[in-house]
Design brief:
Strand content: 15-25%
Oligomer: single chain
Number of strands: 10
Shape: globular
Structural class: alpha/beta
Helix content: 25-40%
């Protein structure tokens, strides 16, 4: 069971909509309700955030029309938040980057899923150098194909990370059993060990960052005080998450 550490929300999903379709991502391949988080739900989430906090989960955060405003709301509510998000970068502009930095965003991770993202990543790096308050900008590749794409677009190996392997909690491996004792696997999960949770755009609290279908929906954020982990979860036996 999880320890007695304070429960925290580490990711707030502004939207689960996305502007591209990547082969390795469940987006567009499974049926889930789509939408945008509203202000009230976002503020409820902030009451349970500390330190590292993502303002995205399954979707592309730059699609949310209130992104800049929500970043400012978060930093005003809690200036100590290490706030950032993951993005494919395609909708990022020099002006948007400046607004986000001025409003207190701390970091951006660019996913190099396509050549357009690779080229935009190089632009973002250049734009960031000219900011009065530069962000921490980095990039990831999720597989060998993406690494080759990044290299072919002129990126060098020191410009991106490639140290994580995941299978979307079984989505990429047909949910085959990888861990016959899911209870033991669950105890290795940081979400369970450190009492971390994710909130989807509609305010529902989720137990797992790879649970795209929200099979382990634990309740609503307004009930967060009473929500608790109850491992092992069904997806634990098929979840492959390795950080080298």
């Amino acid at each position: 069971m999880p320890d007695k550490k304070k429960k925290t929300i580490v990711a707030i999903e502004l939207t689960n909509q996305c502007n591209i379709r990547c082969p390795h991502c469940p987006q567009g391949r499974v049926e889930v309700p789509m939408g945008m988080m509203n202000r009230d739900t976002f503020m409820q989430c902030l009451s349970y955030c500390e330190g590292y906090t993502e303002v995205n989960w399954r979707g592309e955060p730059t699609l949310h029309p209130g992104l800049v405003e929500y970043v400012l709301m978060a930093k005003t509510f809690n200036p100590a938040l290490n706030l950032g998000f993951h993005t494919n970068g395609l909708l990022m502009t020099k002006a948007l980057l400046r607004e986000l930095a001025n409003n207190g965003l701390g970091w951006i991770q660019v996913s190099l899923h396509c050549p357009e993202s690779c080229f935009r990543y190089k632009e973002i790096i250049e734009w960031n150098r000219g900011l009065e308050k530069p962000l921490y900008i980095y990039a990831d590749v999720d597989n060998t194909q993406e690494e080759l794409t990044a290299l072919s677009c002129g990126l060098t190996q020191d410009m991106f990370h490639k140290d994580n392997i995941a299978n979307w909690a079984g989505f990429l491996t047909d949910y085959r059993i990888i861990y016959p004792e899911p209870g033991n696997r669950a105890q290795q999960c940081l979400f369970i060990k450190e009492n971390k949770f994710i909130v989807a755009w509609d305010g529902s609290v989720n137990a797992c960052c790879w649970d795209y279908k929200q099979l382990h929906n634990l309740g609503k954020v307004e009930e967060f005080e009473t929500i608790a982990h109850n491992p092992p979860y069904e997806l634990c036996k098929s979840c492959l998450w390795i950080s080298k």
